[in-house]
Design brief:
mainly alpha; single chain
Length: 349
């Protein structure tokens, strides 16, 4: 009897351990991450529960492949342009300083469509070359706007939001959320800030090096960045043209980025108004009928979400039809749900 009493706690304790082990295994299976989900090791949390931001010692750290591609295109374009216009330098007239520098300078002012007119083609060959380079240059500027410049701005978004909330106790998670919600706004602010730097730097340089009056320097900066390029005021010294090679390219792209983000802000504002109207609109019987995708007389959560997204303009009926077609192709047993066996059968067929 004593032995029975002594063994009962051990048995019950063993059963408890087995039950706890089963519950842990069940919990692991239930909350097992999908293969497409990010790995925990790749996204660790700090001691305060905030998501850490990947460090970037400079904006050129871990350069994106698309940026490298654009940089290569730019170097090749300027290099080829410099060689070509250097070889035909005797067929270009105007105020010259150094043969190689003038060739690079002429390539840049052609590419950005500034066209001061301080050095111009003076033969049929150079005129045809200028026509070819201006079209390819404009295409390259468009590529830079779509890839490199946008990438550089995005790299510094977190720093901008952090600076704006410097005097507030805001964690990294809140900053990330703020960046995502107002992404276009912060891109515009950064592009505008870079444009101001370009304007100030260009004006100061023209005053200090080119010895222009303040109004003339500012006038030259504005006519350059807007690619108006009257040509009555331009870079005439060797140092000035060295500066212009980098400044004109950076400045004209910065201004184009500002106008691009203004257009995006306008589009985003209209989209938010549509979303607000859809969310505030009362559902009617006609809305329920339109939302009932499977025509079963009721609207589930998924059907409701899809209908609202379509009303907001986030997706179109064509998108829904394509997705439903893919779903039906994967749903081999026609059960209305997808399973591992459905995927296996769909892949084997």
């Amino acid at each position: 009897m004593a032995n029975t009493e002594a063994t009962e706690p051990l048995l019950s304790r063993s059963e408890d351990l087995e039950a706890q082990k089963f519950r842990r295994q069940l919990k692991k299976r239930r909350f097992r991450r999908a293969r497409s989900a990010p790995c925990n090791d790749a996204d660790p949390q700090d001691t305060n529960g905030n998501i850490p931001i990947p460090r970037s010692d400079s904006i050129f750290g871990n350069i994106h492949p698309s940026f490298r591609k654009v940089a290569i295109y730019l170097v090749v374009y300027i290099g080829v342009g410099a060689i070509v216009f250097y070889l035909v330098g005797n067929q270009i007239k105007g105020l010259k300083t150094d043969g190689v520098l003038d060739a690079v300078y002429f390539t840049i002012v052609t590419m950005t469509t500034v066209g001061y007119g301080d050095i111009v083609p003076n033969s049929n060959l150079t005129k045809l070359l200028a026509c070819a380079f201006v079209f390819t240059g404009m295409a390259l500027v468009g590529l830079i706007l779509g890839k490199a410049a946008d990438y550089l701005v995005e790299k510094q978004e977190f720093l901008l939001v952090k600076a704006l909330h410097m005097h507030q106790n805001v964690g990294q998670r809140e900053i990330l959320k703020e960046v995502e919600v107002n992404k276009t706004r912060y891109k515009f602010l950064l592009a505008f800030f870079l444009l101001l730097i370009m304007i100030i730097a260009g004006t100061v340089f023209l005053i200090m090096v080119e010895k222009l009056e303040f109004v003339d320097a500012f006038y030259c900066v504005c006519s350059t960045l807007t690619t108006l390029g009257y040509g009555d005021k331009s870079f005439s010294t060797e140092a000035g043209r060295i500066f212009a090679v980098f400044w004109i390219l950076a400045g004209t792209i910065s201004l184009a980025q500002v106008f691009l983000y203004i257009a995006e802000l306008n589009t985003e504002s209209r989209q938010k108004k549509i979303v607000k109207w859809v969310l505030s609109k009362k559902m009617t019987n006609l809305d329920l009928e339109a939302a009932d995708i499977d025509d079963d007389g009721t609207v589930g959560a998924a059907e409701f979400v899809v209908y609202k997204l379509k009303e907001m303009g986030k997706i179109s009926q064509e998108d829904i039809s394509l997705l439903m077609q893919e779903f039906e192709e994967l749903d081999v047993d026609q059960s209305g749900t997808l399973s591992i066996s459905d995927l296996a059968l769909a892949q084997s067929s």
